[in-house]
Amino acid sequence: MARQLEPYQMVERSIIKKFRKTIWNPFILAIKRYELIQEGDRIAVCISGGKDSMLLAKLMQQLQRHSDVPFELVFLVMDPGYNERNRKKIESNAALLHIPLTIFESDIFEVANHTEKNPCYLCARMRRGNLYHQAQSLGCNKIALGHHFSDVIETTLIGMFYGSQLQGMMPKLHSTNFPGMELIRPMYCIHEDAILSWKQYNNLTFIQCACRMTENIDASGDGIGASKRQEIKMLLRKLRKDNPNIEKSIFNSIHAVCLDTMPGYKTNGEDHSFLEHYDRKQDS
Question: With 70 as the cut, is the pLDDT of residue 18 above it?
């Protein structure tokens, strides 16, 4: 008689078997293509409680189990002021999925929600800083975040449409405020639709955005709400009907930016114009 698998084992099997093409292979592609993990790394996998970070935790567990490159993991949860229901949901999901959590408290929601000017930006900066600080105190040299392929595309378009800049989301970054620390995004090549399918296939439920300002925006769980990011999601859904490869084209374009065709660009925080080299090229 075949052995009955535990729920967490069924979830792990689904990643390797059913979702091998759409989740596991793109995950491994990003790890290798962007050289995200090196021998001896101690990585804090940052868990917010949503579908993305929980899947990231399982992927990193699987990789650690099967990789020839030895590295360590810490599954780090920052409680920025979750309500009791969300906090319990994170803990119960972690227990179900056999993810050993390290939890620390902060008052970020309280601080961010009492500022009138750009609370989301303040919250994001404070969360990132707190995660770096806690991860470093635990002996980690990297933090891993659950941003995925769709986040990369949406962030690029949001910058163009609403920020007047052509700016991508990097697969890894050196921290400027925490020397020796690095941020990695191992789900960089995984589409959000695949993550939603994985969640639904395994009958899993996760918290939505836990911010008190947006807690009730996305009760449907389909990834569509009322923010600028959700507007971009809707636009991309419409564009995909005529061009199923639209997102792949955008993704490939940020890997092949031709600076020679740009009238202006910014590097290391400094603005540059094509005029700096325009006459020089003619002379040569």
Answer: yes
